[in-house]
Amino acid sequence: MPLTHSLATRLGKKLTDVRKDGSLWWLRPDGKTQVTIKYKQHPDGSVEPLELHTVVISTQHAEPLKCKRTEECVGYKGDEMVAPSMADMNEAIIQNVVIKTLEEITLKNGKSAVSIFNRDTCHLHINPSGKFIIGGPQGDAGLTGRKIIIDTYGGWGAHGGGAFSG
Fold first, then answer.
1. What was the pLDDT predicted at 37?
2. pTM score, whole prediction
3. What is the C-alpha separation between 31 and 48, in angstroms, rounded?
4. I need a surface site. Which of 52, 89, 137, 152 has the fewest CB within 10 A?
5. For residue 158, pLDDT beyond 70
């Protein structure tokens, strides 16, 4: 599997994991990821990842600074918490999803995937369109075909703009 596809898939899985284990309780189920990597192409046609160029994560979340954990998480009995600000949500996603996922991946050269990540140069787009409170079918209207292709092929699938359906 191409590294971009594998990484995007694992970022999506990590979003689910941190939502379900309660560490990022304010996340909701809908999310999309996309990854771009800069490669060096060798004379034999093989490629070697040089740097993580862009990470896009759009993930559904509770209303920042308003939503309470006792209302968002059925059965939660601990201390009351309020969803963090968008800036704090985005930072938590970078730390607990992006970096933790990279730490879990070993590249073919034996190094950790963190070795191709430079926070100063990587284009991190976390919820780039702002709040993402409405998700699911209501939030995906008009994306049929395009989202399916990203989910299926990552950045490796050429696409002319038409729908990817039956």
1. 96
2. 0.82
3. 28
4. 137
5. no
